[in-house]
Write a structure and sequence with these properties.
Layout lengths: L2 H20 L33 E3 L5 E3 L5 H10 L4 H4 L14 H16 L14 H10 L6 E5 L5 E5 L8
Antiparallel strand pairs: 1-2, 3-4
């Protein structure tokens, strides 16, 4: 027997031992406890159509029905646990609390993003006057406040404020 054939036989023996360890076979199925299945009839004692005080009931087929969440208390609890949508997290323009000045980090990100867009042949909103450098064109657009981007400032509570470049005060 070659080394390769010996390795195959060892692998087959290992897989048989593995299967025998975890597969008891159909002869042991009658040992299962029937009350673990959903069609068990032991739940029918004295329950109404909508269930008992715990919300457990049965339907016409004998299946267990769990009812809950009918009252306003459950609705309020669910509403409190619900995540706020993006629209609910937005702060209106008149309620903004952050500064109207563009930070140096926002300026760098705006210029870099707009320069990348210009280098990918996005339309330019200022007169070029022979300028070919995308960063210089983006700086010129920022000076004239013609960059069509919005800055989103996140607050610690998860809400945010949206500022357009035209609204922000830029120190050049």
């Amino acid at each position: 027997m070659s080394d390769n054939e010996g390795a195959i036989v060892q692998a087959q023996n290992y897989s048989l031992r593995f299967e025998n360890r975890f597969n008891d076979g159909p002869e042991n199925y009658e040992d299962f406890d029937q009350e673990h299945f959903s069609d068990y009839d032991g739940f029918d004692e004295g329950e109404g159509k909508f269930g008992d005080e715990n919300g457990l009931g049965t339907d016409e087929n004998g299946n267990t029905v769990v009812a809950g969440g009918f009252g306003p208390e459950e609705f309020q609890q669910q509403e409190a646990r619900r995540r706020r949508t993006l629209k609910e997290k937005a702060i209106p323009k008149e309620d903004r609390t952050t500064t109207p000045y563009m930070t140096k980090y926002e300026r760098a990100r705006i210029l870099g993003t707009r320069a990348l867009q210009i280098s990918m042949n996005a339309p330019v909103f200022v007169d070029l006057e022979g300028e070919t450098d995308p960063l210089r064109i983006a700086m010129k657009e920022l000076a004239e406040k013609k960059i069509p981007l919005v800055i989103r400032r996140y607050l610690p509570d998860g809400s945010f404020e949206d500022w357009s470049v035209e609204e922000l005060i830029v120190d050049l």
